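@channel anyone free to eyeball this complex?
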Amino acid sequence: MGQIELKKVTKRFGETEVIPPLDLVIGEGEFVVFVGPSGCGKSTLLRLIAGLEDITSGTIEIDGQDATAVGPAKRGLAMVFQSYALYPHMTVRKNIAFPLKMAGMDAAAINAKVTAAASVLNLTDYLDRRPGQLSGGQRQRVAIGRAIVREPSAFLFDEPLSNLDAALRVNMRLEITELHQTLKTTMIYVTHDQVEAMTMADKIVVLRAGNIEQVGSPLELYRTPRNTFVAGFIGSPKMNLIDGAEAAKHGVATIGIRPEHVTVSKDGGDWQGRVTVAEHLGSDTFLHVASDLGQMTVRVGGEMNVRHGDTIWMTPDMTHLHRFGADGLRTP
Amino acid sequence: MATKASRTAARMMMAPAVIVLLGWMLVPLIMTLWFSFRNYLPLRGGDLGFAGFDNYVRFITSSAFWPAVLATLTIVLGTLIITVVLGVLLALLLDQPMWGQGIVRILVIAPFFVMPTVSGLVWKNMFLDSVNGLFAHAARAIGVTPVEWIIEAPFFSIILITSWTWLPFATLILLTAIQSLDSEQLDAAEMDGAPKIKRFWYIIVPHMSRAITVVILIQTIFLLSVFAEIFVTTAGAFGSKTLTYLIYQRVLESQNIGLGSAGGVYAIILANIVAVFLMRIVGKNLDA
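replying in thread with the prediction:
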């Protein structure tokens, strides 16, 4: 249950090709995150899998069955929307019960399932309220509750945390990860936030303009980004990409070094620069540096006493240097 | 922003408009109330002094009163049912993406801008007329005797005309309501296994319920005072005399201003009851 396979799937809106031919296998029980900048087609891809949009060509297989022409309700997938899409005129109980009611289940069974889902999601006290009377996090849980009662073969999440404040987002991120560990159901999660992708995913799919740039585990993507786009997109703060003479020394068009793989010194080192902004977080210090090689960001563990205008020296850790050819692809 | 001085200034600047509006409203209201207690017969002696509540009693005890109430209700309810049901369906249809959307929407609204007298005459002469009307031509074309619509089905004819005028209004309000529905809700319902009909009943109709109520209340207020459509078609004959028409007859045909004014006061009370509900719902709408 819960294996999804896309074969040569394409999508066009009129003349514009949103998804060029795309192949992807999502294994059973995996937590897959689609990540990419806005407009990269990740939500469209999710809607294609859900069946809310028709694919232009190619096939979608769910659990080995061709589901290309199957309606969204019959695919056995449940979706949590960005706006939560709760039914505002129904109570929380009726919202969660809606898919079961549509499936024609009898009232006693519906009641039992709704009660069970509500207790898992800490919604028992709110069952008779309307969505309008709930906080953002509670609405989010109702949306998840409505998805889990159906016992789908896979869950689809469309940027579910983007409407929550930062603290709540961290919380819900944990809750969704825990939910995945409990249910062991396949989950496909769309986000533009690479931190969400890194923390939650078993497998990340990085998309740009409908193309898959790289598929892999979070650490694979972190350690061996396939091209400069993935290198710049995954990791926070962003990897420093340097081209020109310095890259030529390494025999490539572009070199990349992550902020955490640079040693900073006030006395001497390979590259010299002037601090433009120093962000002191306590645990780390992020320095934004104007250097001869361009604007760079470096991370220093703990506290470092530097201020705007100070001159510092940076030495990259050569074992963590990424090399990219003129075509942007990684070279060994 | 809201200092004491700025609030005072705001009140001063609003005052002329408020005073004009109040005067516009209050003068006719007070005159109607005044006349309703007078025995005022312009062609039979003029103002003959106070009549107490005689006019009020006479108006509702008249044999024409209850039929007029019934006629009013028939026209109001008939028009409401037709405009709301067709309005919802037309709104659904117009919400679909199509070629020439803008022009179609303007055309749909057009009947609302036609004056009631004009639409009454157009319908009476061009559609309902038993000799030259389109319906009569159609009937003859299929070998059926043309129906004398205004004589044989006066309520149907009047409701047809008022519905034609008010359908665009209902459609327009309901269309904006449909357009404000979050499409993700429909997607969610589709994922939840609700087919089109159920999505309509469980998602679209509840979403439109407030707009439907507003349409019903606004239309009720205006339909209670339907006059021109009756005046130019049946002229109150064939049992199609509404309360408004009865008041008109009392004042102008019977030349009894006191009696007509008493009827007018009843109409004001009736319209205000509806208006109170309307205010509440529209007010709630603005809060939400």
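from a first look: The CA atoms of residues 264 and 314 of chain A lie 5 Å apart.
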